Amino acid sequence: MKELMLIVGGVYGGLAVLFGAFGAHALKKRFSEELQKSFETGVRYQMYHAIIIIISGIIFPFIKTSQQIMGWCFLLGVILFSFSIYGLCLSSSSNNNWKFLGPITPLGGLLLLVGWILFTINASEIALYL
Fold first, then answer.
1. Among 29, 15, 65, which residue's Cα sits nearest to residue 73?
2. Residue 130 has what pLDDT?
3. Model pLDDT for residues 34-65, shown as the tens digit of each residue
4. What's the structural domain count of the chain?
């Protein structure tokens, strides 16, 4: 699980840079100001979580079930949250609204929140032994 976290964290970080540049340049003419802001939110959250995924991969052994659940919450939460925002923005800009993605975004946000709660619990347990 540690290796997966480090690899996926790196991939998510690299993709956040790529998507951020793509959104700022290639999509700027296609997107309204509102869509641009939404797309940027997806990129920002993806980068934040790429960083916490890498940090988690470094500091946690992923022996405990709560650490594994935390990892999966972060990994899947980014896909459901950020990637659903990208899909909503891209489909909306082409008048092909993929409305089915709308309910997926808050589910991804919920997974990210659970990941942060579990991160806090697990980090506080590690801090007790330092």
1. 65
2. 64
3. 999 999 999 999 999 999 999 999 999 999 99
4. 1
Give residue 41's identity as a one-letter amino acid code. Answer: T
Instruction: For residue 37, give every residue at least 6 positions away whose Cβ sits within 8 Å of its Cβ, in sequence order, or none.
Output: none
Contact, 120 vs 62, CB < 8 A? no
Cβ within 8 Å of residue 112, ≥6 positions away: 45, 49, 73, 74, 77, 78, 81
109-122 pLDDT, tens digit per residue, is 999 999 999 999 99
Domain extent at residue 92: 2-128
CB neighbours of 123 closer than 8 A, spacing ≥ 6?
A: 59
Cα separation, 42 vs 84, whole angstroms: 8
| Interatomic CA distance for residues 64 and 121, integer angstroms | 12
